[in-house]
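Researcher: I'm preparing a figure for a lab meeting and need a structural model of a single chain. I don't have an experimental structure, so a prediction will have to do for now. The sequence is pasted below. Please return the structure as tokens so I can convert it later.
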Amino acid sequence: MSTTSIAQASGTFTLGGDLTINRLGYGAMRLTGKGTWGPPEDRDECLRVLRRAVELGVNFIDTANSYGPYVSEELIREALHPYDGVVIATKAGLLRTGPDVWPVLGYPPYLRQECEMSLRRLGVDTIDLFQLHRIDDKFLLEDQLGELVALQQEGKIRHIGLSEVTVEQLEAAQKVADIVSVQNMYNLTTRTAEPVLEACEAQRIGFIPWFPLAAGPLAAPDGPLQRIAADHDASPSQLALAWLLKRSPVMLPIPGTSKVAHLEENVAAAAIELSDAEFETLSKAGSAE
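Model: Understood. Here is the structure written out token by token.
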């Protein structure tokens, strides 16, 4: 397999009917300092990570204005602009007041401001996928999404996505906007978002699982993840990604890292094919955690 085709082994998915991406992407949250705050310790390595991801066939990169804040978007532009077929997704709807502090703010003028600023930082006229980072219960959902729809109509947003929503919230949002993706926490051992995944699968909405590599005790030396990984000459984290990719055709994992070596390991998971029996073994073990 050539270097440029590694991520393609994960299969493809078409967002919104017009953006076809390789299903295994890259999450850019880790391109920042501790607590997702400030610049990274090794800025040059982070730039190498972004460029190497694209070399490996990754053409879907997920970020947010709140990562840094702003740091992640700025590094993406420096490393990859003008992007050349790489889909850049970003988000707004959270404030940053310090390390690991994430107040929700869905005030519609703020969402507009942050979209405008993300356009500048990324150096684009249109953001391919703009996601509402959280629904803010202090404002009407119709007003929050309505602002994104207005930006979409102005040509500043191509597609709209959501993050951390229930099935009911997804259905309510769909009455206001065409939703092409949902980003919820989901991994082998944390599957509370299963109903949302099933709703996305039924409608061919992209499902972007954040925190995709959590495996906990399953990754112990004598655990099922380690045993099956050994059969594939792979790591437990690679198996966790392979499980996600097999779980659903709408699944778009975005493992993140600030190290090139770790990135290469993650992307190599695209080529791992689990048998149905292996998938079921991992599924049962994960649900028992």
